[in-house]
Amino acid sequence: MTTATSGPARQSEVSFFVAMVATIAAIGGGLFGYDTGVISGAILYIKKEFPIDDATEGLIVGAVTLGALVAALGAGVVADRSGRRVTNIAAGIVFAVASLLCAAANSVPTLVAGRFLVGCGIGFTSVGGPMYIAEASPARIRGTFVSLFQLAVTVGILLAYIVASVFAPAAAWRWMLGLAMVPGVFLAVGMAFMPESPRWLVKQGRRRDARAVLVQIDPHGDPDAELARLERDLAAEGQGTWSELLERALRPALLVGIGLAVFQQVTGINAVIYYAPQIFLAAGFRSDVTSLAATTGIGIINVLATFIAIWLVDRAGRRPLLICGVLGMVATLVVLGLAFRGGAAGAAARNLGLITVVCLAAYIVFFAFSLGPIVWLMISEIYPLRNRAQAVAVSTASNWGANFLVSLTFPVMTTRLGAPVTFFTYAALGVLTLVFVLTRVPETKGKTLEEITGFWR
Ligand code: BGC
């Protein structure tokens, strides 16, 4: 952007507005984390109120992921036609209604429907949130601001652990699920006061509106020059269609987006996030209380380590963080696999608990500054504006599909194949992720979204 004034005052003014935009949009990330995390506590009490079999339990837990998968695709249509802001408002409304429905559910089908709807909210926010923040942020701080979305996801997961333990003595599962209504309303109302993404406005030919938003983003910049740059860079863009996703030109970008989305999941993150208490019990923790405390510790580490990405993603860049993080994840998974193998044979049984805590904590740190935030960031920055909404939607849906698969297969894999083979499998997929990052993923640090799009031409 051309600068009329420069220096720290201007910088902080730009950052303040974008930080506000990013913070409001990131509430959706908080709900994403909260609603995926809270069910592990709530389900214990739901089971006491409704007599359900294992399959129905799986349905109540898994309905969120399926809802997110389906809604991610729908969010692509809404984000493209009605705008990024509307997509986030819709997410807030859906979250609020769905949380109420879950809290008031008097039958299993209503509860499953409520959880599916919660998933729809998550699908909308995971497409609309990062994309909106990325399109509203100046290039030099885009990574930091989009990483706020992931920070919110981790805070949401932690809050879910805390809320679940606070309401556990009263078995108040309706409160656990219903509380998410409050941030849902904040998201919808907050987004109603936010401006639309300037890039989407340019795409719609609404140049006066786009200029007004550019002034808000950078009050001391040169909105006309920025508008002219966007119009020039986007001149050839126009309205995209879903079928264009199959065209050759988009393939390299789609490969990176879908690849990152799938690798984020198949390296096992949600085996840890969803099943940490069971892993700790298997490692020799004696009571539910200590294993739940250790799980809360994992949640805290997840939040704290995300700050490493917030701090470094626009300084060191995306690739170095991805490479270090995935290397670390592979190493900890291998140690974990070896420890469980030794533990099962009796040799390392005494140390297994300690090794497990250290390895899972380290694994979470490595994930939290790499695949966690950077996948959502890169999905929202690598696609050309013309097809961005559709391509982000497909990548996000792949993420939820892979998430569903891992959550479904983890218990079966540990029982049938054993914990060591399960962890070694995630480690092997981590090695593939590393090769993928090294050979396919470009560095996008400091580049405008339009420059990034140029990589694929
Ligand atoms: C992933 C979620 C995961 C969370 C953990 C997100 O980036 O998409 O699947 O549960 O990170 O912090």
Record keyword descriptors for this entry.
mainly alpha; 457 residues; disordered N terminus; Growth Hormone, Chain: A; binds beta-D-glucopyranose; 80% helix; single chain
Give a verbal description of the structure.
It is globular, with a radius of gyration of 22 Å. 53% of the residues are buried. It has one domain (8-456): Growth Hormone, Chain: A, CATH 1.20.1250. Residues 1-6 have low confidence and may be disordered. The chain has helices spanning 8-37, 39-49, 54-81, 84-104, 108-136, 142-167, 173-178, 181-192, 198-203, 207-217, 223-234, 251-266, 269-282, 288-312, 318-344, 349-368, 371-381, 385-416, 419-440, 449-454. The protein has 20 helices and no strands. It has 457 residues and is an all-alpha fold. The site of beta-D-glucopyranose (BGC) has 12 residues, from helix 6 and helix 13.
Provide a concise account of the structure shown.
The chain has helices spanning 8-37, 39-49, 54-81, 84-104, 108-136, 142-167, 173-178, 181-192, 198-203, 207-217, 223-234, 251-266, 269-282, 288-312, 318-344, 349-368, 371-381, 385-416, 419-440, 449-454. The chain has 457 residues and is mainly alpha-helical.
